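re the bet — no i am not wrong, look at it urself. input seq straight from the record:
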Amino acid sequence: MEIMETNYGIGSEADLESIIGAPMEFVRVKVIHELDEVMKEFIGKAPLAFVSTIDANGHVDISPKGDPCGFVQVTASGDLLIPERPGNKLTFGFRNILRNGEIGLIFVVPNQRETLRVKGIATLHNDPEILSSMQVNGQPALLYTKVVVKECFMHCGKALIRSRLWKPDSW
């Protein structure tokens, strides 16, 4: 199917809200600046997170990170520690963090409709004691990403419901 250019571009927030509507106040207040207990528990159940970073040219990169449930640690101060395992060695996300620490995360828990969205500032570390605490199959993490949380919220499950992700009969 060929897509033809039209004059139907959406060029402003007012245009966008005229189609989608403005966010309801009860949704706006879900966005908070530190992890609450429900979010910490969710992270403890998550075997998968999608990590988004920004390169030197402002282009976005996204990478999945996965390990046994709870692989991302939450520190006493509410920061996140994400271990790195051996992989393809492209290190796009890590190079991006070195240039621009802005990071976005989406945590996914099997059979849960909601996801957890987190924005923050990331730095890279290799503290041997922490790497050892992140062992899987006797192997410590190679390094870890520390994320200081700036904004977070539980995201409604409409995308996972519509996608039927957790419904094997739809695969």
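see?? The chain has six helices and seven strands. told u. also The mean pLDDT is 93. so pay up
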